[in-house]
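Translate sequence into structure tokens.
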Amino acid sequence: MRFVVMGDFHYSRMNNGTDDMVQARDKVFTALLNQFLAMDGDLHISLGDLTHEGYPEEFRYVFDHMNRSEREFIHVLGNHDTYSIPKTEILSITGQSRYSSLKQMKRLSFSSTLPKK
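Result follows.
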């Protein structure tokens, strides 16, 4: 089984950002999500802090993007994800389960995405 893992994405609603800042945010975070989803794997995982302040619109942005893909995605809640709304509301927005487990795992291996020197 092959995992594609990211952590500390920190997508921010940038409530006080200028229009230019918001456009730059959307360009960068869309590119990062596209690159994450382009990586081949059986399961794509976020290891917490997918959002910066845990606002519903932050979750919706990321999960709208994830849901448009064909990838299986699991999000582990991080401390930033739970700043603003209760976990039950987060799970309602994301459609994720509070707890997950992998039932079948034949082999687990890790490899770096860093280029070889």
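Note: The chain has a mean pLDDT of 90.
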